[in-house]
Specification:
D-Maltodextrin-Binding Protein, domain 2; DNA-binding; LysR_subst-bd; WH_DNA-bd_sf; alpha/beta; transcription; transcription regulation; Arc Repressor Mutant, subunit A; 3 domains; 15 strands
Length: 313
């Protein structure tokens, strides 16, 4: 194949704009020259990439497939240029990042001013959403996530542990009683994270305990569960970075020593597959990993050793 990067860039812009002439103008090409480049690309690939009318162009099925590959090639070339040309003294560019709203608010947002002072030429585009974002399709450099990662081609890097345990308020336990065995949870009010229906625990002997229970309330926001538990609504799944301060202050009490919550809630950074990590992304990731660890240490470091019997340690 003999097509060049400029032809790939032109094709990507034609797909975005729906017009060969308008795309050609961005590359200082006449409409005729831009059309010749697209036709040469089609000849080289031996497929038709575009449907053409007098008013607009649209992608053929083959064109839609090739568009994904063209974007990846251009992204890889840009990443290679960045890694090869930049030094720590000249880090620049935009870092596009996504994370959940609660994680971003506590672990990312407070530290952006410090990062900006260290790397004034790096711009941050941060999207905080509780929807799972397709970072490849939407062009993100990084996503910060928690919990078990679904199998995918994304590159994952563990940032820190994220211990989870069951907690309730002293007031609730005084009213409802202190559970001594997982089976006792059937008689308690259940505050669950996400779509879970009950409890999944591991005992001191390694045995699993699955206790189905109707939920009193549930939420995909960990802060909500902690606040409800502090208010005496029931027993909650709680990550220590949410519940640590309330436990330390005595507003929440861990329950069921010797039993640990089964599901994994580690903190991760994930990025697109098969790409060199641009220096602007590397410095941001390294900076944030240190802040993630420091934030967790502040939230629950002082009580972590005291809670080992509740965490399967």
């Amino acid at each position: 194949m003999s097509f060049d990067l400029k032809s790939l860039e032109l094709f990507v812009r034609v797909a975005a704009l729906g017009a060969i002439g308008r795309a050609g103008m961005e590359f200082n090409l006449s409409s005729t020259n831009a059309t010749h480049r697209i036709k040469a690309l089609e000849t080289d690939l031996q497929v038709k990439l575009l449907n053409r009318t007098t008013r607009a162009v649209s992608l053929t099925p083959d064109g839609e497939i090739f568009l994904d590959y063209a974007k990846r090639i251009l992204n890889d070339v840009e990443d290679a240029r960045t890694v090869l040309s930049q030094t720590t003294a000249t880090v620049s560019g935009v870092v596009r990042v996504t994370a959940s709203a609660s994680l971003g608010r506590t672990h990312i947002v407070p530290f952006v001013p410090e990062f900006s002072r260290l790397y004034p030429d790096v711009k941050l585009d941060l999207n905080l959403t509780d929807n799972l974002v397709d970072i490849v399709e939407q062009g993100y450099d990084l996503a910060f996530r928690m919990g078990e990662l679904a199998p995918s081609s994304l590159l994952a890097q563990k940032l820190d542990d994220n211990p989870v345990l069951l907690v309730a308020s002293p007031d609730y336990l005084a009213r409802k009683g202190y559970p001594e065995h997982p089976d006792d949870l059937r008689n308690h009010d259940c505050l669950t994270l996400g779509e879970r229906h009950g409890w999944h625990l591991r005992g001191p002997d390694g045995a699993e305990h699955r206790i189905r229970s109707d939920f009193t309330a549930r939420s995909n926001l960990g802060d909500a569960l902690v606040e409800w538990a502090v208010g005496g609504m029931g027993i909650a799944h709680a990550a220590l970075w949410h519940a640590g301060p309330a436990i330390e202050a005595g507003h929440l009490v861990p329950i069921l020593p010797g039993y640990s919550v089964f599901f994994d809630m580690k903190m991760w950074a994930v990025r697109p597959p098969g790409r060199l990590m641009p220096l602007r992304v590397k410095v941001f990731l390294d900076f944030m990993q240190a802040r993630f660890i420091a934030t967790n240490q502040k939230q629950y470091g002082a009580i972590l050793s005291e809670l080992s019997q509740y965490l399967g340690k």
